Amino acid sequence: QVQLVESGGGLVQAGGSLRLACAASGRSFSDTNMAWYRQAPGKAREFVAISVYLGTTLYLNAVKGRFTVSRDNNTNTLYLQMNNLKPEGTAIYYCDVLELWGQGTQVTVTS
């Protein structure tokens, strides 16, 4: 059974940084795409970044140059390094693996 547990969220001022982690368990994910999404209050869930198992990474235009997605296939962990955070980045961040979701981790950015 696949389980995903996100962590690393918190309260940060604009311009600050956070590093999110998604610990995946239940099988190996080295051959699987792993992605980050977020959902702001009153808005639909949106794609943020993806780590393609072949090595490619893709980002939402609004976070390019500020966010970095990475993965550790030895520990089945997906990361999202978020720098220069902006208030519009306030959302619950979820990881998506095999169309399954974790419980999310709250990120709040104050101005």
Describe what this molecule looks like in 3D.
Helix content is 0%, strand content 53%. The chain has no helices and 11 strands. The strands form 2 sheets. Strands 2, 4, 5, 6, 9, 10 and 11 form a 7-stranded mixed β-sheet that branches. A 4-stranded antiparallel β-sheet has the order 1-3-8-7, with no helix packed on it. Strand 9 and strand 10 form a beta hairpin. The chain is globular and about 40 Å long. The model has no long low-confidence stretch (mean pLDDT 96).
Instruction: Compute the separation of the termini in Å.
Output: 40 Å
Query: Any idea what the shape is?
Result: globular
The major β-sheet equals: 7 strands, mixed
Mean pLDDT value:
96
Total DSSP E strands: 11
What percent of the residues sit in helical stretches (DSSP H or I)? under 10%
Number of helices: 0
The low-confidence parts are none
Structure classification: mainly beta
Q: Which value, in Å, is the CA radius of gyration?
A: 13 Å
Q: Give the SSE order as H and E letters.
A: EEEEEEEEEEE
Which strand-content bin applies to the residues?
over 45%
